[in-house]
Write a structure and sequence with these properties.
The chain is of the alpha/beta class and about 325 residues long. The protein folds into two domains: about 200 residues, HUPs (Rossmann fold), CATH 3.40.50.620; about 50 residues, no CATH class. The chain is about 45% helix and about 10% strand. The chain has ten helices and eight strands. It has a six-stranded mixed β-sheet, sandwiched between helices. The longest helix is centred in the N-terminal third of the chain and has 34 residues. It is globular, with a radius of gyration of 24 Å. The N and C termini lie far apart (about 75 Å). It binds iron/sulfur cluster. The site of iron/sulfur cluster has 6 residues, from α5.
Length: about 325
């Protein structure tokens, strides 16, 4: 064996080891999300929405993989909506789905034509397009007898949505891992809720999924989402761990320490015993927040650090 063949063999082994590790991680994340939110139950028929992008390919692949050893029985049907965008390579998904041997349906609806006809040139088409697509997918789920609709949104989509809603919508709201459709007839699940986009991107590249470009409709990308995405990516590079902490915060909400009177009965706070599960206030205490390594090191923020590298919040009142 030549030196070059030997090195190529080693490289191949390392790549396959990395792919296995990544697959295990994604499987673990998806399995945990499914269990935490009771996303899939015995006898479910899960309709996986497949757009041809990295997220939905990964979702389908991991769900099929998990099903092999799942303690419950559930069916999977992949669905793609061919929206008749110019240049849509209609053969790619059927070929892929036949090759992996999964039940599937391709739904052909010219939503592209409707959107072009209804929306004046230069205006954003996404809102009507998404509404039409949602209706078609709900209808398809009913026709197929699916009990769950699985979408490929991941943890980074959820965080981006949280910030978008705060910045532009005035709401503390994200994408839930599981929800009821607006007509009350379908249950939507997001099994990739605990998965990082960069793991999905690496997995998709390593698996060589036949990606279909997502700009065929010619619509501009959502600039606000792009800005938020870049902000989060920058934080992730500069302050490792911050994304994880923010996602934990989404699972650790304290309504008595926000200011929505519909979630917490502030009006009836009385002296006496604290209601069960409600934190008392520590407004007069110095609250200790995380260490410097988790916090920005720029000039403005470093001024807040005390000698021990801790932030101390000023006393209130
Ligand atoms: S980017 Fe194009 S296909 Fe996607 S929602 Fe917007 S209009 Fe529809």
């Amino acid at each position: 064996m030549t030196e070059a063949t030997h090195l190529a063999g080693k490289d191949e082994k390392r790549q396959s080891y990395n792919l296995n590790k990544l697959q295990k991680k994604l499987r673990r994340n998806v399995g945990n999300a499914i269990a935490d939110f009771n996303m899939i139950e015995e006898g479910d028929k899960v309709m996986v929405c497949l757009s041809g992008g990295k997220d939905s390919y990964t979702l389908l692949d991991i769900l099929l993989n998990l099903r092999l050893n799942a303690p419950i029985h559930f069916d999977i049907v992949a669905v793609n909506l061919d929206q008749k965008q110019p240049g849509f390579p209609a053969h790619i998904l059927p070929e892929y789905l036949q090759r992996i041997g999964v039940e599937y349906r391709i739904v052909e609806e010219n939503t592209y034509g409707i959107v072009k006809e209804k929306i004046p040139e230069g205006k954003t088409t996404c809102s009507l397009c998404s509404r039409l697509r949602r209706g078609i997918l709900y209808r398809t789920a009913t026709e197929l007898g699916a009990s769950k609709i699985a979408l490929g949104h991941h943890r980074d989509d959820m965080l981006e949505t949280l910030f978008l809603n705060m910045f532009y919508g005035g709401k503390l709201k994200s994408m839930p891992p599981k929800l009821m459709s607006d007509d009350g007839k379908q249950i939507l699940i997001r099994p990739l809720a605990y998965c990082r986009e960069k793991d999905i991107a690496k997995y998709s590249a390593a698996k060589g999924f036949p990606i279909i470009p997502c700009n065929l409709c010619g619509s501009q990308p959502n600039l606000q989402r792009q800005v938020v995405k870049e902000m989060l990516q920058k934080w992730d590079r500069q302050y490792p761990g911050r994304i994880e902490t923010m996602f934990s915060a989404m699972q650790n909400i304290v309504p008595s320490h926000l200011c929505d009177g519909r979630l917490f009965d502030f009006k009836n706070i009385r002296r006496g015993q604290l209601p069960e599960g409600v934190e008392g206030d520590i407004a007069f205490d110095k609250e200790i927040l995380p260490t410097q390594s988790q916090l920005p090191a720029d000039e403005e923020n470093s001024a807040l650090f005390g000698d021990e590298g801790l932030i101390r919040i000023k006393e209130v009142g």
